[in-house]
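TA notes, week 10

Several of you asked for a full example with nothing omitted. So below is the full record: structure tokens for the whole chain, then the designed sequence directly under it. When grading your own attempts, check the secondary structure regions first.
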């Protein structure tokens, strides 16, 4: 006898009837974009074989405490784009096999300290675009398999020093667009496998300790755009040997000490646009033999050292647009044997014989 294509599931206190493939229905429930406003506590009763549950883009503002208790085998749970304001401490407790959880784009103001204590297999966790102001130091305890954490677009002022201690396998961390003005020393010390760190659009004005990032030996991309940096210290990025992209644009940096990037031997792209840089010394880019892209537009640069690009022999794209240059040292660009694009527009050039070489 063929299994019926008609399946019934009680989302509210009333039953809804719909057609689904019986095998897909057995493993997955897709209830996204359905205008749901309420879920009954027994909505998913006895669905022990369910692997994937989509509830995204509805109008849910509340989740009954025990609503997911029967979903022993659930691996993927998506609740993003709802209006959820709070979650119970034990909401996910029975989901021992959960691997991916997305509750971004809601109205959550507080996360219970032990919310994820029953989810040791979590790999992907997205909590972005909520209203969280404070976070408990134990929130991510024992999530040793976690690889992708997105905590961006909240209202967090301070991140506890030991918040990420157990996240040994984390590869991607997004903390952008919060309200943090301080990063405690040791915050990233337990993240040896981290490859991508985004701290864009926060309020930090300096790196608290030269060793803040030093444990991130696998880091490939560091995003610090749109903060309040005024100066870079010589050892701020020391020992980031794997770093390939460094974003420092849209800050207030007025000084770049020599040898600031000396140990960033893998760096390929450096973004310094929209700062307050007035001059660059000879060894400002010392150590950047592999740099191919340098963006320093929209600063107030008036001069650079004649030999500054000696230290960037593989540079292909250079952007010096929108600065205050009257001229460049005649030999400064001679080191760029591999150049593909050099942008020099929107500078107040002195149009005399001293800059004829720029026309070549």
């Amino acid at each position: 006898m063929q299994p019926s294509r008609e399946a019934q599931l009680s989302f509210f206190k009333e039953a809804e009837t719909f057609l689904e493939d019986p095998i897909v229905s057995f493993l997955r429930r897709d209830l996204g974009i359905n205008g749901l406003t309420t879920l009954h506590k027994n909505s998913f009763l006895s669905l022990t074989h369910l692997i994937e549950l989509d509830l995204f883009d509805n109008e849910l503002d509340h989740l009954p405490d025990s609503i997911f208790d029967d979903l022993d085998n659930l691996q993927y749970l998506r609740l993003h784009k709802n209006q959820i304001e709070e979650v119970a401490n034990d909401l996910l407790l029975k989901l021992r096999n959960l691997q991916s959880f997305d509750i971004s784009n809601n109205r959550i103001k507080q996360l219970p300290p032990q919310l994820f204590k029953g989810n040791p297999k979590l790999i992907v966790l997205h909590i972005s675009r909520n209203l969280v102001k404070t976070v408990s130091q134990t929130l991510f305890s024992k999530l040793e398999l976690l690889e992708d954490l997105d905590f961006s677009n909240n209202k967090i002022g301070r991140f506890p020093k030991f918040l990420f201690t157990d996240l040994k396998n984390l590869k991607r961390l997004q903390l952008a667009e919060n309200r943090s003005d301080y990063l405690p020393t040791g915050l990233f010390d337990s993240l040896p496998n981290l490859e991508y760190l985004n701290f864009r659009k926060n309020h930090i004005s300096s790196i608290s300790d030269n060793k803040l990032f030093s444990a991130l030996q696998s880091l490939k991309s560091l995003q610090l755009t749109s903060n309040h940096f005024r100066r870079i210290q010589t050892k701020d990025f020391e020992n980031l040997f794997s770093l390939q992209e460094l974003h420092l644009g849209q800050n207030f940096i007025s000084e770049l000490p020599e040898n600031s990037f000396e140990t960033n031997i893998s760096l390929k792209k450096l973004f310094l646009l929209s700062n307050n840089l007035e001059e660059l010394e000879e060894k400002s880019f010392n150590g950047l033999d592999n740099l191919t892209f340098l963006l320093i537009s929209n600063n107030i640069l008036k001069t650079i050292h004649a030999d500054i690009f000696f230290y960037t022999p593989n540079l292909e794209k250079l952007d010096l647009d929108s600065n205050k240059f009257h001229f460049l040292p005649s030999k400064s660009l001679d080191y760029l044997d591999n150049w593909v694009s050099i942008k020099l527009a929107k500078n107040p050039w002195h149009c005399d014989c001293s800059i004829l070489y720029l026309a070549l």
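The domain at 205-360 is CATH 3.80.10.10 (Leucine-rich repeat, LRR (right-handed beta-alpha superhelix)). Use that as a sanity check on your answer.
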